[in-house]
Write a structure and sequence with these properties.
transferase, Polyprenyl_synt, magnesium, prenyltransferase activity, about 120 residues, Farnesyl Diphosphate Synthase, mainly alpha, metal ion binding
């Protein structure tokens, strides 16, 4: 038999999620360079910072907390998981794979910046 979660538990989780998502966004924004040769920084930021639910880093941070760790200590690892995920989406969208032209309602990286930039981003 399953039990419904109490409203305060749902509210508490929502607050935790929002706080952790904001922390992940800040960390990613500070670690993904804005300036890089040949516009690569712009392509990287476009691929990583413009949308997404950040479920993978949230799971990493929740796992850290579940075993008694501190989320600040796990933030780099959590963001690394998100960066790998973003990389996989960029490469999956390339013409040699799925050749998708839209992701999250906007042009994919290879459409916006070209295939060479997408490959390096």
């Amino acid at each position: 038999m399953t039990q419904a979660l109490a409203p305060q538990a749902i509210s508490s989780f929502a607050a935790w999620r929002e706080a952790q998502q904001a922390a992940v966004e800040r960390a990613l924004s500070s670690w993904v360079p804005a300036q890089a040769p040949a516009g690569l920084g712009e392509a990287m930021r476009y691929a990583v910072l413009d949308g997404g639910k950040r479920l993978r880093p949230l799971l990493a941070l929740a796992t850290c907390e579940a075993v008694g760790g501190h989320t600040a200590a796990a933030m780099r690892a959590a963001c690394a998981v998100e960066l790998i995920h973003a990389y996989s989406l960029v490469h999956d969208d390339m013409p040699c794979m799925d050749d998708d032209v839209l992701r999250r309602g906007k042009p994919t990286v290879h459409v916006q910046f070209g295939e060479a930039q997408a490959l390096l981003a």
